[in-house]
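Hey, sorry for the delay on this. The queue was backed up all week. Below are the sequences that define the complex (chains, strands and the ligand SMILES where applicable).
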Amino acid sequence: MANVWDILAEGSIAAVGFSIHGQPFVIPMLYGSDRELIYLHGSAASRLMRQLETGLAACLTVTLIDGIVMARSAFNHSMNYRSVVAFGTAKKITDAAQKQSALRTISEHGSPGRWAEVRGPSQKELKATTVLAFHMEEASAKVRTGPPSDDDADYALNIWAGVLPLHVTAGDPIADPKLRDAIELPESIRNFETRQLKPRSKS
Ligand SMILES: Cc1cc2nc3c(=O)[nH]c(=O)nc-3n(C[C@H](O)[C@H](O)[C@H](O)COP(=O)(O)OP(=O)(O)OC[C@H]3O[C@@H](n4cnc5c(N)ncnc54)[C@H](O)[C@@H]3O)c2cc1C
């Protein structure tokens, strides 16, 4: 399971799938995890949350794209990736302290350090939000790394082959036009930039 949790720790969006009366749905969602449970949140009024909280069978996937694998043949092109497919069920968190903690986990997952810098959720906001704990009953991780795998005869071709690495990078922060004067960039955003920015490969 170590690989599964490591991939979940690095991902940011989960695709959550479930079926209602034979109609499959796959919905993108933010998430957070504590290496035991995966936490999801959403509007208490949404169909998504109302369905998931009934404990119906669900499937959650997270994908990290690491690069495009350029082979000498069209057929052998591929992607370098790390992905997780997890089957399980979600349960509504009703305990107030657990709910706060799960929301903090989701927030810290996407924006580390931000929770401590912002106003916390009010009672009204908490009431309007459903938080679910997704319990993985079965999960698999799949990883592809390394150069292309070409057919033996194709290595003699004069065609460039290799890997084009792909990274998610943060751009320059754009201040809210309604931001009050003299408010400096907080630590979480400054750290986010240094943590996420990676040099682009030139080769
Ligand atoms: C990156 C990302 C992260 C998100 N994170 C969260 C989250 O953490 N929590 C959360 O509640 N919501 C999140 N959303 C929104 C979420 O994907 C759904 O749109 C929303 O929760 C569905 O609400 P609903 O049940 O009222 O919609 P439904 O009533 O179930 O949707 C009605 C129909 O609208 C269409 N639809 C719904 N969602 C989408 C979509 N995202 N894209 C295209 N068509 C759609 C589908 O055809 C669907 O059948 C996220 C969206 C994105 C893109």
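Residues 2-190 form a domain with the Pnp Oxidase; Chain A fold (CATH 2.30.110.10).

I'll add it to the shared folder too.

S.
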